[in-house]
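Researcher: Next entry in the queue.
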Amino acid sequence: MIGVVKALEELLLTDPGQRGVCHLLERGDLLKSVVALAKAKSVAIVTGFPCFPQDEQKEETDGIPGALAIAQSATALGSQVHIICDNRNLALMESSTDYYAHVGALQHFQRSQITISNYNKVKDVYSPSNYDCFVAIERSGRAHDGRHYTMNGKDITEHCDPMDDLFETASESDACTTIGVGDGGNELGLGKVYSKVARHVRSGAQIGAAVAANLVVLAGVSNWGGYGLAAGMFSAAQLEAVSTPAAMQRQQELKLDNFLPTAEQVTCSYTKCECEIGCMLGVLLQCVFYCIVVHHLALRQDSCWDF
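Model: Structure for this entry, 307 residues:
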């Protein structure tokens, strides 16, 4: 498993946007994140980055597929998953998840383990003790001045519900491990590497996220981080299955397709988002390519058992 995760960590640093994500890496955090998620019985996931506030009907595609890949792997391991989204895009998240199940990426039992709520429904009953892990992937993070910014410095605060407060409470709790996944430094959780963001990212001192996660996963595209975590969880599950005789029978049930979408399913999901749901199509080809690479890597038996 360690060999797979190390290889994934390097792959994730492929940087099509040339943002310098390699400078933000916290080496070893990907492995720690995989272990935490593989052990978790309950996982919260938050995503949503309104880069196109001029058009309320459109949300960028980076983040949602990665969140669903994490949810897919977590449910394959038996976890209950709670996806929390902004009030404005609850319908988008529900439609995306249902279609993800429709194309076969989620089995029936997996979809039944996923609950989706908007911020208004969660804010008054939220407790970090409800979750073993809380993952923020491609989620706008509040900057040090209290505002939310795109990579170009556009202020999008009015379109972002205060998820940072929920996440920060979880980060300060011993009951929950928080994981921030991002590709630029302005995502929720990446406050852990703020000093690096301020130094290496354009306008990083202004736009860099303030709230720190316990662990951070950096990737050239945030969705890739979600796929990397999913592939790592698959490898962790394989390792567990051969570690004890009682678990060997379960290994037969551990199919990669229960942990990761196929390239065809990713393509279908993106097409659905663009044509019917209203997302912005930004990274389709890169994500399909990366999904193929991750499938190949996760199935390499020589890496899976490399300690």
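Model: The first strand starts at residue 42 and ends at 48.
Researcher: Noted, moving on.
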